[in-house]
C-alpha cells in the first residue's frame, strides 16, 4: 500500500491548494468501490458537521 501524504495548504488558500486537495482525494479514493467511496465521504461530512456544531457552541 502506498502512503499518500496530506497536502500542505498555504494560509492564503489559493487555487493551487484546491488542486492539491482534489488530487489528494482522487488518490485516496481511486481504488475504492462505490460503497467505500460513499462511506468515506459520508464519514467526512459527519466529521465536518460535528466540528461546525462544536465551533457554533463555543461562540455562544
Q: How would you describe this structure to a colleague?
A:
The chain is 68% helix and 0% strand. The chain is built from two helices and no strands. The longest helix is centred in the last third of the chain and has 26 residues.
Features:
single chain, 60 residues, mainly alpha, 2 helices, flat
Give the topology, please:
Elements: H1 15-29, H2 34-59
Give a short synopsis of this structure.
The protein is mostly helical.
Question: Whole-number average pLDDT?
Answer: 92
- N-C termini distance: 44 Å
Order of helices and strands: HH
The structure class reads mainly alpha
Annotation field: number of helices: 2
Roughly how much helix do the residues carry, as a percent range? 55-70%
The counted number of beta strands is 0
**How would you classify the quaternary structure?**
single chain
Query: Which regions have little confidence, pLDDT < 50, spanning 5+ residues?
Result: none
The geometry reads as flat
How large is the radius of gyration? 15 Å
